[in-house]
Amino acid sequence: MAEGKARFGTPLKIPGWVNYALVPLVNLFAALLISGIVILIVGDNPLKALEVLLYGAFGYPEAIGYTLYYTTNFIFTGLAVAIAFHCGLFNIGAEGQAALGGIGTAIVCLYLDWLPSWAIIPIAMIAAALFGAAWAYIPAYLQAKRGSHIVITTIMFNFIAASVLTYLLVEVLINPAGQSPESRPFIEATWLPFFHDFLSMPETPLNISFLYALVLSGGFYFFVWHTRWGYEIRVVGQNETAARYAGISPSRNIILAMMISGALAGFVGINEIQGVQQRLIIDFTNEYGFVGIAVALMGRNHPVGIFLAALLFGALYQGGSELAFEMKTINKEMVIVIQGLIILFSGALEHMFRPRIEAAYRRVATWRTVEAG
Predict the structure, then answer these.
(1) How is residue 189 annotated by DSSP?
(2) Cα torsion for 229, 233, 238, 240, to the nearest 10°?
(3) Is the CATH number of domain 48-354 1.10.287?
(4) C-alpha atoms less than 13 angstroms from C-alpha of 160 in its C-beta half-sphere
(5) Is the distance from CB of 127 to CB of 105 less than 8 angstroms?
(6) How far is CA 229 from CA 81, 83, 101, 258, 266, in A?
(7) What is the mean pLDDT of residues 144-161?
(8) Model pTM?
(9) Domain boundary assignment for the chain
């Protein structure tokens, strides 16, 4: 944590709320400000656009259901990227790991559909996690044992995963009664319950995998900060040399962190394949894995921050579609520009405002110390 000195020589620590709340909010404000300027240039009212976006994301029950549905996927991928970050790894393979999670889910729902719902739902969850973890194990092993860079291997494995999914849907799992590259529909007993099935709300894709995401967020916090395995992962991520000196195996923890990361990403398959599509389709991952990188960065790799960042991007996905529909000058590409600006400021330019914010905090804290003295 950054430190300064008050007038009397007492070490001045920057509190957590500055780094974990104020800095991301300033970055978000900067991204929205630039987005507003762009909207103004194309000839529309940025305040009206913001109003439409917020209403489209939170203004009525159906919108909230869709926003939370998108949020669920971003929580899974944000947690997946975050656990790798804690180990000093940049996992760009969440997209491919999510694809394998969907394949595992589909295999269970297609070939074990004779089982009752109470059995097939947990089996599908386990399959999604195992397939995602297995896909992450290979680049993890190459990094830990062979020195291959995790960024390169995970990017390559995204393309391989897409090819595997395409092959299976064209040659193996394709619906014999159809022409599209997709599997046959799952029987209803394999579907995840929707929220509108047991709550008084409009029909939306929101299903109980949202509850899985919340439970996994709590488990993530407990694992990373309250277990020996989480401690070892964080030590390896902060100083691999010190970890070796302390008797902690970097290679073992690299493999463990990446397999957990892949398992978390695999849960996208539960939400999308078992919860919403009820069949295996091409491109169901919809770049959720890549957005998960920005979610983890913006959420500071903490589950509470990841939830808030995931909710923001869920609102952008849902409210953005409403924005493109309601305002003629703003199309889908303009919404992508807004999303890209937020990713830019929360990722590549994450530290641009930090020095000025911390310096301002030190000045205010020093002034208050002098006044109190």
Answers:
(1) G
(2) 100
(3) no
(4) 13
(5) yes
(6) 17, 12, 24, 13, 21
(7) 94
(8) 0.90
(9) 48-354
